[in-house]
Amino acid sequence: MEKILNIISNEVQAAMKANGYDEKYGKVTLSNRPDLCEYQCNGAMAAAKEHKCAPFQISDKIAEALKGNTLFESVESVKPGFLNLKLNPDYLAGYLRQMEEDGERLGCSKCKDPKTIMIDYGGPNVAKPLHVGHLRSAIIGESVKRIGKFIGHNMIGDVHLGDWGLQMGLIITELKARKPELVYFDESYQGEYPKEAPFTISELEEIYPAASAKSKEDEAYKEAAMQATYELQHGRKGYQALLGHILHVSVSDLKRNYENLNVSFELWKGESDAQPYIPAMVEKMKKDGFAYISDGALVVDVKEETDTKEIPPCMILKSDGASLYNTTDLATIVWRMEDYKPDEIIYVVDKRQELYFTQVFRCARKTGLVKPETKLTFLGFGTMNGKDGKPFKTREGGVMRLEYLVSGINEEMFKKISDNHTVEEGEGRETAKIVALSAIKYGDLSNQASKDYIFDIDRFTSFEGNTGPYILYTIVRIKSILKNYFGQKSLPQDARILPAHSGSEKALMLEISKFNGMMESAFEEAAPHKVCAYIYDLANAFNHFYHETKIMAEPNEMVQAGYIKLLELTKKALETCIGVLGFEAPERM
Ligand code: ARG
């Protein structure tokens, strides 16, 4: 469906043209004075300069020309030369009925030219627990992916596990110190390795920090870990079997954690999957003359003439021949291009890695790992801070485990819900989980991703204000009215959304009608916060309408049925939006 703003613009542009002015002056925007009008056109101000006359002479003419146009309830020319527009309620009702008929798309057409877009998000590290730093990547990435899917693109999410490097050697070294008798350490062992991992997830999570701490104090221990890493990376069998166990145990735990966040990935690839692509990639970079030795290391220059700050070369191999985080990311691009031929790769990563990704992207482009038209996008996010404005920590000052953060909020929510009314424990817990997730996700997504934000549990879990629970509360309210209505009767045959009977009803209808335009720009700008802003305005408009309208007591059957239809559409818009944000609404709360 055409966006309502375009439909209106087309009319005003036609009127401009018919009166001898350039079409471009007919562009219409949402009103910034909702008390005066719904839409406005300021084009006469600019047109007047070109035509050397007073702006209101033009706006008067256009207002006159649009008189009788069925799209508008009123077109007013206001000095010095503004056009104030109000939509015809009949037209608006018709537009909403079309949205309704459009089913789950709600008037947002699928894109004509679907792209394959890979999205690299999550980025957890194997054997280390997820912490709040991973939360934003997961939440934002999942939402951007869902928005893209809704628009009609082929979105492929890849978790890009951190499963390569010293952390693996550390775990192996510590395991060897604790259980030297395990067959994995016996180099002469020829048989099959056990299927069962020699550790549980909780042991694994305890082993890594212990090993990491030791390596900082004990040089020999660190050497051993580095040696183990080297041997692992060069094919030592027992160590590779251990890596398999570490991955398996870790990934099942990660999947459980992500499931609790309503986050899922199409691909569970890791840094280790990129390693086989490194030798050929490096060879080619050398052969093509892009990579050269500088201070012993192999590098590719990536600075450009227009740079205003220094962009250091991209290091491909260290002087000892070891690969780096860079090398892995570049080789990952290689397999992504080979296997999926994406039109775009989006990276949802902490914005402190921006310079790093500038280097990687430039290097990939320069050395021809991607096609010239392949888009590489860095979607950097800001830090999640505590109320003190510093990066979010536990009360003791440590790094907060994601699991504890989530269960803490679940608990808080459960208390709130049980305080409000009596619920059965089981249902209460289930509802609390759903509402808590909305609190966390909405609290994050309602901010522009690149900005830092304050993780304020009290505010996020509040049922009032710009919060997830407020949105859910609104949906639940609609559900309960619908249940009440349909418990008593069914819709009359020719029930339909009618032209608004009141200002608050029209305001609600206007909000709903913005759906398609909002969703398109949320995708184009990779901006879930636009979806949040839309549903917040929509929920407010609905609640205002609800407080001013006696829906269940409405005596006119057709008017009442029209309200019900409008409620259904409101609910559908809200639910579709929270769906792309990555949470859902309970039946009651
Ligand atoms: N594992 C990394 C971390 O915890 C994030 C990975 C980001 N993605 C990437 N392709 N480098 O910081």
Question: Could you explain how this protein is built, in words?
Answer:
Helices cover 52% and strands 10% of the residues. It is built from 20 helices and 13 strands. It has helices at residues 4-18, 43-51, 55-66, 89-101, 132-151, 166-178, 201-217, 219-233, 237-260, 278-287, 325-340, 354-366, 402-420, 425-445, 457-460, 468-488, 503-512, 515-524, 528-548, 557-581, and strands spanning 29-30, 39-41, 72-78, 82-87, 116-120, 154-158, 291-294, 297-300, 314-317, 344-350, 375-381, 384-385, 453-454. The strands form 4 sheets. Strands 1-2-4-3 form a 4-stranded antiparallel beta sheet. The longest helix has 25 residues, at 557-581. It is globular, with a radius of gyration of 29 Å. The two termini are 35 Å apart. The site of arginine has 8 residues, from strand 10. The site of arginine (ARG) has 8 residues, from strand 10.
